[in-house]
Fold:
Amino acid sequence: MPASAPTTQPAASFSGEVSVVVANFNVHAGVDGWGRPFDVVAGCRPIDADVLVLEECWTPEAAPTDRPSDRPGADGAECTGTAEAVAAALGYQRYELTLATGRRAQPRPEANERWMQSMDWRGASHAIYLDQHRPMPRSIGRSPRFLQATPGRWGIAVLTRLPVVDHQEIDLGRLRRDRARRGALLVRLDVGGGHVLTVIGTHMTHLSYGSPLQFTRLRHLLAPLVGEGPAVLVGDMNLWGPPVAALMPGWRRIVRGKTWPAWRPHSQVDHILARGPVRALRGEVLAMAGSDHRPVRAHLTLS
Structure:
């Protein structure tokens, strides 16, 4: 599928409306399927969104404990996490939520030009291992690739260039087969003109693990938090558009296009949904940017 060309300016809004650009990018811990690092900052720069939600952010174990940050990064400090690096380089405030701990593998010496070994989804070939809630099988846990991998934290982040009114974490619990707990980050933003936009970033588990249970919980928890005001739900839903729309009634799909796998996409699992007085000027899938997911972006107006 041809990718939409990134733009650097939000689309013009009608008189009396406020425009905002919201985007989503699953960064796969900043590595490809072989474990080779890619430049996450370079991948995020052309997205140029006012609000950018990231999934599978990675922070090495030695980094400070998770805490919301009201500035791009500590002055003079090295940015060790993917979300922290993007925020510091591109001028965002950063809010993060850890969903699991695990290990990120070192690059495999036999790596070729492909993003990963062709159609190799076996656990032993993964670049990311999540073992906080469920131990890895013995064959993997004793493998040199696992033992040489770097420990760290895996989660989601909401990055914003707009003033933050308030924020909170939403716990969605963990399903038995899932290797991570699930949650959402809710951030209310002052977008100007007296408007406050609620942005919710999340990363849902797989359908085969029972994700409809967590979609239902998220829907019920968001109802009193969002009310009738303008809101956007953003994230890697690990589910196609029609069932997402069915599980989240009242939310409208803004972006329609194939996002996964990035090198030859056949499915859309990354979504931006809106409700309330939010109007979509344009929704688009952007070019491959290093991860196995393509970024998605929406130009919105609030009336």
